[in-house]
Amino acid sequence: MRTNFHNSPIRSHQTLKYSATAFFIGLLAAVAPGRAATLRVTPASPQPGDVLAVTVYPAAGERITGVGMAAFDTAQVKFYTRRDGSARAFLGLPFDRPGGVYPLRARVRVARGNETREQIASATVRARTRDFPTQRISMRASTAGTMSKKDLLRREKALVQSAMKNSYPAPLWSGPWVVPTAGRATSAYGRRRYVNGKWWGQHNGADIKAPTGAPVRAANGGRIALSQYLPTLRGNCIVVDHGCNVFSIYMHLSQRAVSVGQSVARGQVIGRVGATGFVTGAHLHWEIRVGWEPVDPNKVLRSGPQF
Q1: pLDDT digits (tens, 9 = 90+) for 231-283
Q2: For a tag on the chain, would you pick the N or C end, based on fewer CB atoms within 10 A?
Q3: Rounded mean pLDDT of the chain?
Q4: What phi and psi values does residue 202 have, to the nearest 5 degrees?
Q5: What's the pLDDT band for 23 if we cut at 50, 70, 90?
Q6: Could you report the per-residue pLDDT of 119-137, keeping only the tens digit for each?
Q7: Among positive and negative, which fits the CA dihedral 197, 200, 201, 203?
């Protein structure tokens, strides 16, 4: 269940949040020496495309009742309580960030007995540089014209984002993540793409070349947040909510075999490879996002998020 920290006491796996604007308000109460929440971030030296685990630990005898944070391109980082009383969020390091030092600050509300107070917990991310290759794609002018349909693209994006607003407040995934379909990798995450010489953006996911009709499987367990034909860009599209604001997305399908609200297991067939939407041929484009931030699917395959 998602709550404001001003509301009822939290339960295990409950979402903790402040308003995004509240994060920027100064510390409202003095913090007694030795009684402060701590903020830890792993991995210690990430690269763009990595998933960061951001964890707030309360001081002894205190209970976290709310956490507010804005970081990178995420205006409101969503924290979830863990059984040990800490609160954890996942955060994507954007692909357009250079290496360097990035301070993170969380505004934390804690309770001790009948007393509540607010603290600032800080940590530093020391990101490593990651260089992405450039890809130049040629398309028929009639197909490339999709790039100029700004209003339709915005509306389609808003529809997908609306389906990803309310992630299940506990992990629905378990074990290793799997590649959704068999085939040849043709375009990796983060590639800088030009279509007919015109800048299109960096690649949000990974492409796998496979024949039309090849099975597409859920990369891990979750619930279907969206299963819909989106004609402008994504074609037949499925979004799986894996819980804790982690999602996987599957695009350009020829068939969809699941419906919204359905639970799926890791490796379950959810659709078939196709060539619908903005494409040059049959393939699977798949993404993993933390909130709306795309992260590198191949890194998640090697080492998925741990709650």
Answers
A1: 999 999 999 999 999 999 999 999 999 999 999 999 999 999 999 999 989 99
A2: N
A3: 89
A4: -85, 150
A5: very low
A6: 999 999 999 999 999 989 8
A7: negative
The closest of 255, 257, 272, 262 to 240, measured between CA atoms, is 262
Cα 15 from Cα 41, distance rounded (Å): 19
Determine the pLDDT at residue 46.
Answer: 97
Domains of the chain plus CATH, in order, are 15-127 (2.60.40.1930), 134-302 (2.70.70.10)
Contact in structure between 247 and 241 (CB atoms under 8 Å)? yes
pLDDT higher than 90, residue 90: yes
In this prediction, residue 33 carries a pLDDT of 46
With the CA atoms of 209, 212, 214 and 216 taken in that order, what torsion angle do they form, in degrees rounded to the nearest 10? Answer: 80
Which of 22-31, 69-78, 143-152 is the least confident region?
A: 22-31
For 130-184, the three-class secondary structure string (H helix, E strand, C coil) is: CCCCEEEECCCHHHHHHHHCHHHHHHHHHHHHHHCCCCCCCCCCCCCCCCCCCCE
Burial (CB count <10 Å: 0-12, 13-18, 19+), residue 80? buried
For the full predicted model, state whether its pTM sits above 0.85.
yes
Determine the Cα–Cα distance for residues 155 and 30; give it in Å rounded to an integer: 46
Instruction: Give the count of beta carbons closer than 10 Å to the beta carbon of residue 168.
Output: 18
Question: Can you read off the two tokens belonging to residue 240?
Answer: 């799986």
State both tokens at 295: 């992260």
